[in-house]
What does this fold into?
Amino acid sequence: MAGPGYGGGQQQGDARPRRPWWKRLFYWSAVLAVWGLIFLVVFFAVFARGLPDTSSLYKVDRQPSITYLDRNGALIATRGTQMAPPADLDSLPDYVPAAFIAIEDRRFYNHPGFDPIGMTRAMVRNLRAGRVVQGGSTLTQQLAKNLFLTPDQNLRRKVQELMLAVWLEMKFSKKEILALYLNRVYFGAGAYGIEAASQRYFDKPAKNLTVGEAALLAGLLKAPSRYSPVSESERAAARATVVLNEMEEAGVITAAQREQAVTQPIIVSRTLASQHAQYFIDWLDKSIRGLVGEPTEDLVVETTLDLTLQTDAERAVRRILDRDGGKGVQQAALVALDGDGRVRAMIGGASYADSQFNRAVDARRQAGSAWKPFVYLTAMEAGYTPQSPVVDQPITIGNWSPKNYSGTFSGPMTIAQAVAQSTNTVAAQIADQVGRDSVARTARRLGIESRIGLEPSMALGAVEVSPLEMATAYDAFANGGERVQAYGISRIRTPQGRVIYQRQSGQVGQAINNPPLYYMNQMLRGVVTGGSGRSAAIPGRDLAGKTGTTSDYKDAWFVGYTGGFVTAVWVGKDDNTPMRGVTGGSSPAAIWRGFMAAALPRLNAPAIPNGPPMPEGWIAPDPVGDLISGLNDGGMPAEPVDPEQGQPYVEEKPQYPPQNAAPSGNPKQSVVRPTSPQPGYPPEGRPAPEKKPEALFF
It folds into this structure.
C-alpha cells in the first residue's frame, strides 16, 4: 500500500527545468532557418527550371527592316525593326540617362537589382486602387525582361525576372546595365535603342538630344503607342512634362532648365509627321513579299511618291475638310498619277491615326457622272462626234426614268454640251444605244477592275469603284491614250546597293486611238472651261476632267488631268450617309484645284498630248470653245451658285432604279421610250450598232 507521498514524490522526480528564453529563441530560429533554406532551395529550383540561356545577352533577334524612300531619296517610313549602332553612354549628355532613371527607377544606384521599397509602395497603391496603377520593376528588371523573358504576367515570370536581375547586377556594373538598357529598350515606331529612337523621331544622333527631347523619349517607355509624339502629340507632351517634373525633383535639372524645356517646342521629324503617306506605305507593304518573297535581310524600297506633292495634297485635303465639315464632308481620298502610272501622291483618309482604312485603294464608292467619259468614249468609237445632235428630254428605260440635276429638260443640244453640262438623260440614252456591255468593256480596257453591273443606271455611275481605279482609267486621256498599271515601287535593293527588283514602264499598250481620244479631251476640257467643273479651272493651264455626284449626295468626285498627270479626288462619309448638298464641282473640285495649283509649277507639265496619228483625211472640228458655245443661252439652263462658296456647281443627281428593276438584258425592259422623236442617231451614213445580249455582270 502506497504511502501518502507516493504520487507527489514521483512527479517531483520527473520535473525538468525550463530553458532560458534566449535558448528557446535560438532553437526556433535555427529550425525556421533550416526550413526556410529548404523552401528557398526548392522554390528557386522550381522557378529556375526553364530560365533562358543568358549567353544570348548580346544576340539581337529581330525582323528585317524595310526603309521606304520617296522618288528623290527622302525618307518616308521604316517598317519592321530599326536598330542603330549602340550609343556610347559617355557621349550622351548627363541629362539623357538621368531622365530615364528619374522616371523609371529613382534608386537605381542603391538597389541590388530589385527595389523592396518601390515594390512595397507599388503594392500598397495597387491594393488601394483595386487595380494595377503602378509597377515596382527596376531598370535592371526591365532589362532582364526585355533580354530574356516574354511579356506574360504571371508569378513564374516575375520570379525569374528577379533572379535574372540579381544575376545582371552581379555580372555587370551599374553603368554597363544602364548602357545595355538604353541600347535595347523599345521606343515605338519600330525603333529599338536610344540612337534609333533619336534618329526616328528627331533626325539627329542621340548625343545631340535636348532636355525636352530626352524627357519625351523617357516618357515613351510607359506605353510607346499611347504616348507617340506622331499620333498622340498632346498626350506625349503631357507625359514629357511629368518626366521633366521628376527630373527637377531628383536634382537632375534646375528649375530654369525645366522652364526652358517646357517653353521650347519639340520638333518631330517631318517625314514621320506626314502620316498620310502611311496609307501609301500600307499599300506597298502588301506587295513587297509578292515581288521579292519573305525578307531575310534589311531592304530599301525606292518609291514613286514625291513627298513635296504629298504634303501639297495633305494641305489641300485638310483645308477643305475643315472648311466643309459642317456640310458632312468627313472623309476624303486622293490619288495622283503621272502619265506612266507612277503614284506621286496618295491620301487614304482624313486621319491615319484615327483610321488606317485606305479609302484611296480599298474603298468602293459609286462614281456618279465621273463614269460618263466611259460612256461617251464608247460612243465616239461607235461613230459619234462631239457635234452629234442629241435631245435632253424625258425618257424611260424599262421602269427607270432618269432625271437631271436641274429637274428640267433642255431639248436639242450637242454631245459636247451634254458632257459639259453633265446631262443625265443624254448619257442614259447613249449608253442604251451603244450597249452597256460595250461601255463596260471600255471601262475594263482603261483599267476599271471592280464589278460592273449592266443595269440602266450604270450609265450614270451606279458602279462602285476606287479612286485608284478612276485615276488609272483617266490616265489614258492624259498621256496620249496609253493604258497604264498604277504602281508605287521603282526599285528594291539592300542597304549595300544590291538590286533585288527593278520596275519597268507602267504603260501596257494603246487603249484609246484617234479621233476618239481627241474628241474626249476636247469635251472634257469643256467641262473645266465652261461646264460642271468650272471651279477647278487654273488660269493658263491646259486642264480637263469630270465631276461626279451620286444620289442623295453620298459621294462626290472630281477626276481631272493635264498633260501626263491625273488626280482623282473623292469625298463622303464612311457610313454612306448623305452630305449636305456637296457635289463634285464643290468640295472635290476645290481639293483638286488646291493640290494642282501647288503641284503644277513643280511638275512643269506640258499640254494634254494629242496621242496617236489621225486617220488619213481626217479634219479637225471647231475648237472646244465652239463645241460648247451657247451653254447658257439658247434655252440651256444657267448654273446655280453655292451661296456659301460663291462657286458654280452644275451637277447631276442620278435617280437609280428600284432594286427589283429587271436587268437590261431583257428586250422588253430596255427599250428607250422618248416623248418626242430623237434626232442624231445613228450618225449620218452609219448603221446602228447591233444589239448584243448582255451579261448581268461584267
The chain has a mean pLDDT of 80. Residues 315 and 560 are 18 Å apart (CA to CA). DSSP finds 22 helices and 18 strands in the chain. The longest strand covers residues 331-338.
